[in-house]
Amino acid sequence: MTDDGTTTAAATGTLGYEQARDELIEVVRRLEAGGTTLEESLALWERGEELAKMCRHWLEGARARLDAALARPEEASGAGDGTD
Questions:
Q1: d(CA 65, CA 35)
Q2: Distance CA 59, CA 55 (A)
Q3: Residue 73 has pLDDT above 90, yes or no
Q4: pLDDT tens digits along 12-38
Q5: Phi-psi region of 57 (alpha: psi -120 to 50; beta: other; left: phi over 0)
Q6: More confident residue, 1 or 76
Q7: Minimal CA–CA distance to 21: which of 71, 65, 58, 60?
Q8: What distances in angstroms separate CA 34 from CA 25, 43, 44, 51, 79, one per listed residue?
Q9: Contact at 8 Å (CB) between 1 and 47?
Q10: Given this model, what pLDDT does residue 1 score?
Q11: What angle do CA 16, 20, 26 make, to 5 degrees?
Q12: Apex CA 44: angle with CA 23 and CA 26, to 5°?
């Protein structure tokens, strides 16, 4: 949770996967380290949930693209080449 524009970018949904993942790692690190107030911990937890959702969204999109790419050769080979 920095003031370098990362939080603002995340709020608008423009974080890339790597950015969201890296920020999530930092949030988890801070939560595990302790030393924050209850209010700060809750804010970190909520931010972590948002970041995890963003990462899931990116990974689901990547999986869909991969599945589509893997399905293409099967479709092409299933069409036949007319030599049978």
A1: 42
A2: 6
A3: no
A4: 468 999 999 999 999 999 999 999 999
A5: alpha
A6: 76
A7: 58
A8: 14, 13, 11, 20, 60
A9: yes
A10: 43
A11: 150
A12: 30
Output the CA angle 35-38-41, nearest 5 degrees: 70
H helix runs in 1-84, sequence order: 6-11, 17-33, 38-78
Q: How far apart are CA 61 and CA 29, in angstroms?
A: 27
Dig out the tokens for 61 from the structure: 């999109």
* Nearest-angstrom CA–CA distance, 11 and 47: 10
Structure tokens at 48: 């972590």
Averaged pLDDT for residues 44-71: 96
Task: Tell me how crowded residue 81 is: count the other CB atoms within 10 A of its CB.
Answer: 7
